[in-house]
Amino acid sequence: MVFRLKVVLWLGALAPAVWLGTAFYLDMFGTSAVGVSAFGPGLDVTGAAGAKLLTTPTLGANPIEKLTHVTGMTTLVLLLITLSVTPIRRLTGWNRVIKLRRPLGLFAFFYAFSHFSIWAGLDQTLVWSWMLEDIVERPYITLGFVGLVILIPLAITSTTGWIRRLGKRWTLLHRGIYVAATLGVIHFYWLVKADVRLPILFAVILGLLMSARVVFSLQKRRKISPSKISPSKISPKGDARPLNP
User: Fold this and answer.
1) How far, in Å, CA of 191 to CA of 123, rounded?
2) What is the residue range of 21's domain?
């Protein structure tokens, strides 16, 4: 079951990248089925070929905006799905679903880094002075950049080896995903300005996921509260504390 879900996960997570890559290729090196390229002139088409153009992947008149929008949107969706893994496990008791969390998080970082790279490479053409000016002067870009910086150590330390090295600190470090997701949602909200329905929906979903974590944390504390500790777990000093927290 988990293997099948991983296959679906990989196919679903790679689909936006494949679509963007196909659209970029067709716009850049369009044949007679593509028509006028967004990056340059192609071959004009009419009739059946023109109708086919309507269903051909394309980045449209503003390809850079399309690339940044799709990669940014995919990042947020994958972050929210990643954060939903633990609530699903706690509510259903299906512990093996936790195996999906790492690839989901890594795909989220992949699209976040792609989002930044498209902005830096295509929009800002790697002019560092322009990039720094945008990061400092535009708050939504500042938040997005900080969110990416937070995700970098999470991606690096996602391996089993790092989990062993960091121990309990690994859990504390990876709680940064909540901060990154929050910054990403605010980044999206400030970016769209006009129609904020989708950013608000993302904010509501994120709020529910964070609330679920708070509830689970409170339940865990109640289970190890002194009133529920048996006499056999009273320490020699007389204070109640769990022997195996």
Assistant:
1) 15
2) 1-60
